[in-house]
Amino acid sequence: MNVQRFFCALLLGSALWPSTGSATGFGINGHIPSDAAADRIEAAGIEWVRIDFLWSVVEPERDLYDWSVYDALVERLEDRGLRIFAGLGDTPGWATSGSPFSGVPDDPEQWQEFCYLAAARYAGRIDAWGLWNEPNLDRFWEGTRGQYIDEILLPGAASIRLGDPTALIAAPDLAHIGSADWDDWLRDTITAARGVLDVVTHHIYPSYGWADTVTQDLQYGDPFPISSPAVRDVLQDAGWWRRPFWLTETGVESREQGPSQQADFVNDLLGQWYGPDRRSRNWVDRVFFYELNDAPSPSPHTWGLVNGPPEFEPKPAYWAYQSWITQAQVMDAELLGSTIPVFFEPGTSVSSTVVLRNTGTIEWSQATGALLVVESISSGWTIAVDQLGPEDLVAPGQIHTFPVRLQAPLYNGQPAVLAGEIRARMTRVGDDLFGELLRVKVSVTTLKWPVIDTQSDAVWVPPGRRATLSVRASGAEPLRYRWFRNGVVIADDDLYSGSRSPDLTITADESEVAAEYLCEVANDAGSVISNPMRLVVGLSPPRGSGDRVKPDGTSFNPRTRLGGARKAGVLGP
Description:
This protein is an alpha/beta fold. It contains 12 helices and 26 strands.
């Protein structure tokens, strides 16, 4: 499948692409934590939770969706102020001719639809989405490296972006041990997904239970005779250096090492990263320890920082982690907004802003060396940033607005569109970048960017009748249209006509129940995606639609769509 990266202006006058960062960068693997387990996470001060988000749980039978497990889980974590990294994966038995759980999906569009529906349902609530767990191990992925990239990563990322343009896309969550070619996997994934991934993720466990070996693998590589490269070197060679990187699994078992040695591992590892030596130089943006709790008895798995249910009694490693969270001296930043526009005329100069909150534990000032770095990935731009002055002090928790001036490059009419990307991230003088990453897709052109002026709302239609969904757009001609159903590209057939026009006509049958439709409008300047349009097929109109419902495909109550509807979960049961 030819996967295109879509983007649109998400804020008035700006395109705020997904961001990274947290208050301290500390996370935990929680699978599907109960209320008691979530309480332990909150009490430790941990901010991020990595959970399993399994396709086989949501769709146990084809087109039979059950979101109840994740509805309850997301609400549970939200109530405690926790941020969620959800790892998508696990092929249902009905969707593969291979092995359930690890088999390659027979129909890539079914995987795309699942990714889109998940992202759309939890838009604005799940912060980051992963695309499979440890695909370089046979027990998790039976396919090839190329199949993972072409059939899982790229189409899944495109569908997530359609479902929630603000969510982070994080991958590939590779296993560092147990795979002789992890470096090839990492390099090939980054190369293929350049411009798609927001965060690169990786799993490293200590070779001998020593925290030092984790830093060794990250920073320096294994010594002879293993001679594997450092993760840092692979990232740099693949063009990812100084961009967001998360260590999404690491840890040791208390059964093998002993409870006190497990605590020593936590202390030693975080001491190397956040202590005076700071050997990682803060380029590891986030660490997720594996895992919150031990498996229930009689399982031998004792990776948890707390004992198993029902008590979830903390081990020494839990208290060690909590101590580091409360005392770690870190610089971090949360991105709150930007006024950088997505469109520039050649040679024009624009004054804009980037707004950040200090979510670390160190004051931003000239003395601490806190700077905002703004750069373009294309040549010809002139960028100036008003940095902190002698009197500017940004304490932890405070907000600061950085003025930014950008001058677009000049060209002689060729090419018609000069596409690029503006990036912004905080740094500390003499150190690596930190905090959330701003990415703004920009175009330099005299052409008018496409704008959707009006569109259909939700539509009810009886079975067998035709419904029409429409968009009306303006911008430089010619305008090109492409329609999607549940994140999957539509082609004209017996059910659909007009899939490449502003008006999509649908012959309604039961397969269209609770489906969401999007329209991409593009021209030579760029592209924009419509808000979701919902088609409901049934013998009677939806409840609450009142007198506005007409059985001819006319829109009913528009309040059943867009952000509020997504958050309420209009898809599925």
